[in-house]
Amino acid sequence: MVKSLSVTPYLSRYSSFPTVGIWNSSIREAVNQGHSRKALLLFRQMKQNGSEPDNFTFPIVAKACCKLSDPKLSLVFHTHVVKSPFGSHVFVQTALVDMYVKHGQLVDAYNLFERMPVRDVASWNAMLVGFAQSGCLGRVLCLFHQMRFAAVQPDSVTCVGLIQACLHAKNLKMVKAIHSYGIRTGMDADVSVANTWIGAYSKCGDLDLAKVIFDGIDLDVRTVVSWNSMIAGFANFEKFLDALSYYKSMLHGGLRPDTSTILSLLSSCVQYEFLFQGTLIHSHGIQLGCVSDISVVNTLISMYSKCGDIVSARLLFDGMSHRTCVSWTAIISGYSKKGDLDETLGLLHAMGAAGEKPDLVTMLSLISGCTQAGALELGKWINSYALSNGLRDNIIICNALIDMYAKCGSMNDARDLFYIMPEKTVVSWTTMISGCALNGEFKEALDLFHTMLERGLKPNHITFLAVLQACTHAGLLEKGMECFAMMTNVYNIAPGLDHYSCVADLLGRRGMIIEALKLVQIMPMKPDTGIWSALLAACKIHRNREIGEYVSRHLFELDPQVAVLYVEMANIYASDGKWDGVAAIRRMMKCNKVKKLPGQSVIQVNGKPHVFTVEDRGHPEGLLLYSMLDNLILQLKEEGYLHLPERTSEHELG
DNA sequence: TTAGGGTTAG
């Protein structure tokens, strides 16, 4: 039955005896207002009225079908088109190609495209965008060449499609090549093309270039999408303050932010120190009417839990009338990061009871929670859960599980999983190398690194960091220096501060303090407290008071509130018999109001966390623990390990 | 043309 009443508003203002043109305008109006079902009803009514659809009608109806994404409906529509005398018209066939592309039916789209007797720029674009969105860069480039061979002039849509394909392939070089092609052909004047470039460069990590393009768009031409693309770029790299500053400029310029702006901004707000600003954005979202959008609520839950305000996150979650898998994951992730495994598991069960199944991201949040809490048993349970739910075939899940096993000290489980993985990525190898380094399996770490290279995998900056850490902990100076040189010479990876820290630590531990200091002085970035601390520790081990004083001056300047630094320097003076130096440090600590908070270790036994500090006698089984420790030290000495560090090596201070 | 929950290091 045709509900004629529901479609009359679109027709009544034109005529009671509509022509094909009037039918087309009415259908177009319904589609543009988002009323796709009404558009289809109008189309049906048009045919029942005896009006024959023309080459303009079909593309509009195809657009309605696209929005409804119902393959059955599309098939019915296709049969209508075939029967029509306009079925072979280029507009109509292009609309069909586009419809199949939007439904993800690329084979059907391409079959139709290949049989088209005439193709215009829109037909080529529809197919090209289809391949681009599926990440087939090779096919996109091939189609682009064929298009130019067929003497069809590419336009801004072609350009956007090409950029999307390069983004899928994460090919920054190709993005730049297409950018220069776009400039040569004058397509950069189109704001939507410029917006795509901003998005492309920021996704590839080149935020400076994104800024250059953004600045190049005239103020009165910039759209909300231009601003959103820039803000999303900062959000991708968790640069909240930059994102916020652009948001403020956007407001100053009189533009009204939309849901996308709020979502990006919220997703970049991930630190406790920004919680207040996050709350302000939340209220902006309410003013703008965005919080009725479920995605915004999900992101708010995530924002509050990442900023450490799990209570607000839970309030929002509990107040939701409808929850998706993303909502459950956001709150589970919050509790899991907090280390609250009881609540995490409770929510996982509640999720199942509510009829939602955990997906890949939910599983990753759960595994990462176990890793942080050191909950090996629960981690194993999640492993079997993933296995029985068909999620254990996923490389990312396996990588997270390997990391969990390694960080919980269960290297055999990590190995078992690593070796049965049918396919491994650089992340898998890096996780395993890093796990070996963490657990003192230095030879295995280096063997894995070489096997990885032999298999033709390209290590990244994190792989090198893991390898350098293995070398540092094992004291393998030559090997470490070899890998450090390999980074730049073979793999063209510029070492970061962390890599320099590792090498400085490696040199310092071996007593090459002058060489370590020289490295710190010549490196291209400003040394941080970490690298100076490594040098200070080396000065302490090798009793180098002179360089120790120089290093500590830098450290005091950078952060005068770090207690360890005073302790280390006092130890250097004490070991040199310079008691006036020790006294001076004590005075500095008092003057700067520094208090030494002891470091803590946490271990879970039978699901219960136990917290320890240095020389902690407060544990209920403290006496037993220390007698066991003394026993172990005695046994080690008997085995020939004579140079054990003293348990109370720290100089009494504070 | 822009957007939500997440794996390797730190």
Q: What secondary-structure arrangement, pairings included, does this model have?
A:
Layout: H1 4-12, H2 20-32, H3 36-48, H4 57-68, H5 71-83, H6 90-102, H7 106-115, H8 121-133, H9 137-149, H10 156-168, H11 172-184, H12 191-203, H13 207-216, H14 224-236, H15 240-252, H16 259-268, H17 275-288, H18 294-306, H19 310-318, H20 325-338, H21 341-353, H22 360-373, H23 376-388, H24 395-407, H25 411-420, H26 426-438, H27 442-454, H28 461-474, H29 477-489, H30 497-509, H31 513-522, H32 529-541, H33 545-558, H34 563-575, H35 579-591, E1 600-605, E2 608-613, H36 622-638
Antiparallel strand pairs: 1-2
Helix pairs in contact: 2-3, 2-4, 3-4, 4-5, 4-6, 6-7, 6-8, 7-8, 8-9, 8-10, 9-10, 10-11, 10-12, 12-13, 12-14, 13-14, 14-15, 14-16, 15-16, 16-17, 16-18, 17-18, 18-19, 18-20, 19-20, 20-21, 20-22, 22-23, 22-24, 23-24, 24-25, 24-26, 25-26, 26-27, 26-28, 27-28, 28-29, 28-30, 29-30, 30-31, ...
The chain binds one DNA strand of 10 nucleotides through helix 10, helix 12, helix 14, helix 16 and helix 18.
